[in-house]
Amino acid sequence: MGCPVHGRLNDVPADRVVSFNYRTGEAMVADPWTELHDLGTGPGFFYSPELGGHWCAAKRETVIDILRNCELFSSRNIRVPRVERTVPSIPHHMDPPEHGKYRISVVELFGHRILDELTPAIRATARGLANELATRNEAEFVRDFAMRMPVEIFMRMCGLPLERRDEMIGWVQSYFHGASQQESNDAHEKSIAYLSGWLDEQLVDPEKSGGHIMPSLLRTRVDGRPLSREEMLSILITLFNGGLDTVAAQMTHIMRYLAEHENQRQKLLNNPDKIPDAVEELLRRFSIISIGREVTRDATYAGVELRKGDMVLCLISAAGLDEEIFPQALEVDFDRSNRRQHCAFGSGPHMCVGAPLARLELRIMLEELLPRLPELRVRPGASLSYHTGVTLGLVELPLQWGESVNVS
């Protein structure tokens, strides 16, 4: 379903119309970063007739303003074009003030105390996967590491049996990158059914709940009452959908860049304390999210007339390449003074609650992988392509390296 207003294109100034398809456009599949960077040199806020018609924000300040302006730009629909789901996403699909009542419990899951408790398990997961790679000289990184690590971490947070990991990975990939809407819907329903059954098991005997997520949900109060089962399930689905494919996609860009830039990789090997700075700069350079908002009322915004029901696509993936904020934006500089001004995790009330966990996973990934994979490189002759949409990641990343180093 696209923009609900017929003839919308006739009302848009010609200099604000740009044909851009973030899902299937040839440029986005082949070389998205050049396409996203170049969007920032145009009007910055424009209308694309693709995908049923929608507005796009490509400049950092405009993206941030829209994400923070919940009164005009609602989160009740965040996909462009709209996608109807059987289970609403709490708190993703809520606006303030209702949103804040539920967000508190989700934020608790990513506080310092829980992350400190999780860090050894995250380190052990990354080290185990890295040691598996170190037994050979090549791997397909998406399959062998990027998808496995965040899914395992989520399962540990829930106390889910790790033997279901590969099945969950398949659901995540099909939901976000299925060949058809039907494949995506089927994967979504399977993940809901599995998490729903697990939730029911936990509720039968809450004292035996493992992991961190269930105890937090049980403690949560909204307007003085505990969460309903349906609310708990919705939050679980939000965590499942929001934190697995995104981290995996981010990992692919970071590892590709370091595999192709030996000097930058050596800087981190020589100075591991620079890894947190490098993570921030790489998050800026390779921001991966495009998220939608729905206009709540007719209004004038950024010099154009918006109509109630218009969809607006916030290209967070382009905001980090805004030359007015980040000169020479396509270059990676670990010492860039404003590297933390990126909005890779969004902004405003809906800023990603899992950002601290994502940063921790990315940092530990580099700490564990880089020393074990000397002479890291992309396999010569490999043809790389991207999956597009809400997240932007590499479909495959074939890596090779020299004789692995034994790291304790």
TrEMBL record:
The molecular function GO annotations come to: heme binding; iron ion binding; monooxygenase activity; oxidoreductase activity, acting on paired donors, with incorporation or reduction of molecular oxygen
Q: Which UniProt keywords apply?
A: Heme, Iron, Metal-binding, Monooxygenase, Oxidoreductase
* Keyword hit for Aminoacyl-tRNA synthetase: no
Q: Where are the transmembrane segments?
A: none
- Keyword Methyltransferase in the entry? The reply is no
Spell out the family assignment given in the record's similarity comment.
Belongs to the cytochrome P450 family.
Give the protein name, as stated in the record: Cytochrome P450
Annotated organism of origin = Paraburkholderia elongata
